[in-house]
Amino acid sequence: MFDDSKIGINHSPVWARLHQHQRATRFMQMRELFQTDAQRFQRFSLQLDGLLLDYSKNRITERTLELLIDLAYEADLPGWMQRMRRGERINVSERRSVLHTALRLPQSASLLLDGQDVVPEVHAVLQRMRVFCDKVRGGQWLGYTGQPIRDVVNLGIGGSDLGPLVVKEALSAYAHPELNVHFVSNVDGQHIARTLAQLDPATTLFVVASKSFTTPETLLNAEAAKAWFLQAGSQGDIARHFVAVSTNAPAVQAFGIDTEHMFGFWDWVGGRYSVWSAIGLPVMLAVGYDSFRQFLDGAHAMDEHFFHAPLAQNMPVLLALIGIWYNTFYQAHTHAIMPYDHGLRRLPAHIQQLDMESNGKRVGRFGAPLDFDTGPVIWGEEGANSQHAFFQLLHQGTRLVPCDFIVPMNSHYGLEQQHRVLVANCFAQSEALMRGKSEAEVMAELPDMPGEELDMLLPQKLFPGNQPSNTIALDKVTPHTLGMLLALYEHKVFVQGVIWGINSFDQWGVEYGKQLARRILPELDAAAALPVTHDSSTRGLIEYFRKIHG
Ligand code: F6P
Asked: How confident is the model at residue 284 (pLDDT cuts 50, 70, 90)?
């Protein structure tokens, strides 16, 4: 379908030049780069609509970026960007278009897919969501006892959970004061049991969110919710208390939810890219239509920047290329994400799914094996808490861990001094990681220490520095800046996938475990036959479970 010849990008001359460049510059110290260039921050930072990206604390020079941009051209990045934007079926293994960007287009736009304009459909669903959310938020959507809804429970997993959960948490300053939105994802019964224990069925609304409407975790939770509800309400009341978000209308109906209470989306929206679709319903319930629209507009602003800015001034492209610089040419295997914002504390989990489910692939988009490393392990935790947990390793461990710091300049919550302390900590960490602490600096702090003790302490108090990071500063966490931030990471992941030659939009790797779980489930029953095909470990574990269950 598309040109396959770029798959072996590691055999391209520019790949070799990047290796050479890495060898030639690997002893370069960022501290010195800052000392010799007073304009480094200005040179290596970008601003867009209340979002600042500072990428100056990286082991890069102008030449590094030139070579990385050559690599992007070698992979035909501009061509792939246009293919995605136009709705070509770039998700080749599932023969699907990839059009989450269409979900954030304004009503006046148009985008033809197979001759059909998708924008009116997108806005029609948004309007249905708006009418529904206005009723629930306004207290006109009544439960079976005639009381308004007070609690919403989203039942979904993966992309049908993490995106809306992060956005709802991040925008809590905009939330309806009397409507609580909860998220239940895990099939571990304690998740739903503990959530329902706080709720009243008469005032609770369930959103069953599943693109496929076949995901066992979600369907089991939905059945448990229905059973809990039916202890109080009747079958005829289900319509007031259960709505669905899905692409699978027959399955929604089979579950017992009228499709009149279903909000649809399309196969060209990947699960981990779906918060912008009806999967965002719990967000709209929490913050209302206007804020949700601003969230979409923020993402659209980032899309416009991504599709139109030159590669050398393009935030997602630069983040992606710098990520590849470390991942591929420095063999850094992980990438840490630290939001200095309590509302964004689950952002690392969302980006982890986005990145690792998209780019955790070992073959190219047409199936050819890749003989280089692809997506990194993404991890992270909110600051300042993480400083007191794993930052020791970042500062003095043996590994290179590129970091992203994300921090708002203003808080919604007053306590101005606390916010300043938070920001100061964030800036201090990236500075400390970059500059390190030299022998002379340590000695100056230990002026009168006797020789032997000094010999022992000095190496322990040294910080090698030269640890790279990006800082993304938001003026404030608003729906607009949050939309920009999430779209920034989506496009970053896409760019990396294009350069490595992989399809970032399928996820075959999650299927096998599901298949085996279906097989093992009946075998947990002591009366069932236990096939000899299991290895001794799996067999031993199954037998242990059976024994415990008598
Ligand atoms: O884990 C695989 C996956 O398909 C994710 O990609 C997806 O977000 C999640 O399961 C949930 O899928 P669904 O929305 O179809 O229930």
From this structure: very high
